[in-house]
Write a structure and sequence with these properties.
By secondary structure, the protein is mainly alpha-helical. It contains 13 helices and 4 strands.
Length: 347
């Protein structure tokens, strides 16, 4: 059997595609044998290049597979996560992290436009310009281990989750670039009366000034490419999940008792069983309310389920009635947990 592909049922399939999850996790990233070519990701990169062409920009950022989305300083290309090159790995990402960032067309294009902003910045050395520094701030500002976004701020555009434009001046530029580049963007009306509108006008002027201009920087170098990553998928996800394992505060027992105060033998069942059954929907609802990664919410649920069991808590009301209050408690606990924490995105 050929190592890279095996014929099964008359169709060519990558050798690891049908492995059970536990066996798949022991495959090294460098042995996945993936490339961007021939995938839905390739079509999306081509869509990005077409958007850049329509904007009159000469650079076409090159793309390679790595462990995550990132654009190295000085390079005019960027990395995208390996799982976007195969549906089986998208399913694995979902199984391990409860979401696969960039798996949908809309989410992927938002991310590609963001990374293209970094690549264009590098190609034209935009961060060195005095007006760039006045509008966005100095690019040399250190990346802090933590940043505390202000969800109410209108000084920044909204593109990626977690108010990512607030994390650093170059991220602010990349997010603003992404909003301007999007075809059909109505940023003039959507950000009317926002201070962020000044940034959007500046980037729009930049796009006009750079039309047809050959950039002074053109690179082909790649960093942390997939063939160079010797870790297994299991090790990769252990490290990735550890990034979301914050010091989770215990929800006070009195709060849990108020939430689940039924007598022993309640006809509505135990609180632990309710949380297990409702886990997926609670995670989805709290993610939508807090804009946090699903894994963060799941870690909190991992703490609550055994504690409810230890306290012997029961439901006093129907699961439908209890669900709303539980979502409120989880939302408050999540906001408290992530307050002042660093973004989990590495761009």
């Amino acid at each position: 059997m050929e190592r890279t592909r095996a014929r099964r049922g008359g169709a060519n399939r990558i050798w690891w595609e049908a492995l059970p999850q536990d066996e798949l996790l022991d495959v090294r990233l460098c042995d996945l044998g993936l490339s961007v070519e021939g995938t839905a990701l390739e079509a999306r990169v081509e869509r990005l290049h077409e958007e850049l062409r329509l904007a009159g920009l000469v650079p076409r950022p090159y793309v390679w597979l790595a462990s995550d989305f990132f654009t190295p300083d000085g390079l005019t290309g960027f990395a995208v996560p390996f799982y976007l090159a195969h549906r089986r790995l998208v399913r694995l990402e979902h199984a391990m992290m409860f979401e696969a960032e960039g798996a949908t067309h809309a989410d992927c294009m938002r991310l590609l436009r963001h990374e293209a902003g970094h690549a264009i910045d590098n190609a034209f050395r935009l961060r060195r310009r005095a007006r760039f520094r006045r509008v966005f701030g100095p690019a040399g500002t250190p990346y802090d281990d933590v940043y505390t976004p202000d969800p109410r701020s209108r000084d920044f555009v909204l593109n990626l989750p977690q108010w990512y434009s607030q994390s650093h001046p170059v991220e602010d530029f990349a997010e603003t670039f992404a909003v301007c580049l999007k075809p059909g963007s109505r940023w003039r009306s959507e950000y009317r009366d926002w201070p962020a509108l000044e940034k959007l006008h500046y980037v729009d002027e930049l796009l006009g000034d750079l039309r047809g201009v050959v950039p002074p920087v053109r690179t082909r170098r790649r960093e942390e490419t997939l063939p160079a990553l010797k870790v297994t998928l299991r090790e990769h996800y252990e490290e990735k999940r550890a990034r979301y394992c914050m010091d989770l505060p215990s929800v006070h027992d009195s709060t849990l008792r108020k939430l689940f105060e039924g007598a022993h033998g309640s006809r509505h069942g135990t609180a632990a069983a309710f949380l297990r059954r409702s886990r997926t929907e609670l995670r989805r609802r709290v993610c939508a309310m807090t804009d946090q990664h699903p894994y963060v919410i799941d870690q909190l649920l991992n703490e609550l389920v055994p504690r409810c069991r230890q306290l012997g808590l029961q439901l006093s009301r129907s699961p439908r009635e209890t669900f709303v209050d539980t979502a409120i408690v989880l939302t408050a606990a999540t906001i408290h947990t992530v307050s002042g924490r660093s973004s989990t995105y590495s761009r």
